[in-house]
Amino acid sequence: MLIVLGFCSKYCVISRSLGLRWIITNRVPTQLLEWSRTGYNHYLGYIMHPWSHSAVILGSSIGGTAFLALVVLVLYRFRRSDSEKETQLKVERFLANYKTLNPSRYSYSDLKKITGKFRHKVGQGGYGTVYRGKLPNGIPAAVKMIEISKGNGQEFINEVATIGRIHHFNVVRLLGFCAEGTRRALVYEFMPNESLEKFIFSSKDAKTRNRPFSWEKLQQIAMGIARGMEYLHQGCNQRILHFDIKPHNILLDHNFQPKISDFGLAKLCSKERSVVSMTAARGTAGYIAPELFSRNFGAVSHKSDVFSFGMLLLEIVGCRRNIDVTVENQSQIYFPELIYNRMSQGKEMGLEIEIDGDEEIAKKLAIVALWCIQWNPTDRPSMTMVVQMLEGDLHGLEIPPKPFASSDIEMIAT
């Protein structure tokens, strides 16, 4: 088929069979006219005189781009289809091997009923959208629909393999799941107070920010998170490394009791193994232990979770993000360095202290956090030791060595 894009004294030919050729002459040759009459499979585009030159180039570009886009789209669809089939087989093989899991398996139709056709959206996570719903027995539930475009089914497997078989007061409970074709979802117990992040970062202005909880309550929340992590590391048949401990992944129930959630990046390992192999860093910037970026800092282990807990605990103490470039004083940008310098120099912590006893709690939480973020993993306490430190009093704690160097601060801030 011959497609004419314009009329002029010069032309170009794009041939499917011969590839891309540009032929420039002063007239249209007889051969091209013959191709036009016989339906030979070429595309002919004329290059116009200067006054219409742009129009033809635009037309040619659009045609070529559209054709290439079509080819890319077809190839992408084929690859995506094959990838989705592989993922479905991977998920089904996993579920076949874990038939004894406690969570119920729901169909997609069940989820539509549970969520009222997905009417009540309550959040957006790293791997999908969360909806509020109610199970047939009347129990409130949160349904996370996992986005197929993110991951290869491994995050779904991680969640079911980890919290599908455990139960702890400070770990969110998995009530069920859905794996139907390309649709995958996780059904959790519903947490009416959402995440800890919502409360400790509630105000953008640090000067006007009021603490959402008393220091006593903050200590209780920290204790709950620590106990949940200790259970993951020591209380299960296999050690569960979370790799994404942060305020957003700490949910709060109706009594503001903390529950660790979002096990999409979790990794299982035996308790005897002190080191785990990793092909790439995982987690959220600002909470990732340095050894996950470079083995020069040490081996990846359960101590990597301890580092994340320390960064989380400092944000609980400061009621602010650890890195805040909006502060007026440059020395206050990195909160861990700020709080360490003040404590090591015997200065006031600069925190909101209202009643007797609050300062002791604040100092204890800060010291524990600073021990947890020691640069060398071997210098960090285990979560069992962290629980003991939080349960004890301030007098039994010493301020740790400086956990970072100035160059490290600059690296993190950038």
Q: How many domain units?
A: 3
What is the SS-derived class?
alpha+beta
- At CATH level 3, the topology of the largest domain is Transferase(Phosphotransferase), domain 1
Secondary-structure element string? EEHEHEHEEEHEEHHEEEEHHHHH
The gyration radius over C-alpha positions equals 30 Å
The CATH H-level superfamily of the largest domain is Transferase(Phosphotransferase) domain 1
Under CATH at level 1, the class of the largest domain stands as Mainly Alpha
Which band does the percent of strand residues land in? 5-15%
Which range best describes the helical content: under 10%, 10-25%, 25-40%, 40-55%, 55-70% or over 70%?
A: 25-40%
Individual helix count: 11
The main sheet orders its strands as 4-8-9-7-6-5
Please report the total strand number as a whole number: 13
Shape: globular
| Largest β-sheet summary | 6 strands, mixed
Q: N-to-C terminal Cα separation, in Å?
A: 57 Å
Low-confidence parts lasting 5 or more residues at pLDDT below 50? 1-29, 38-51, 204-208, 406-414
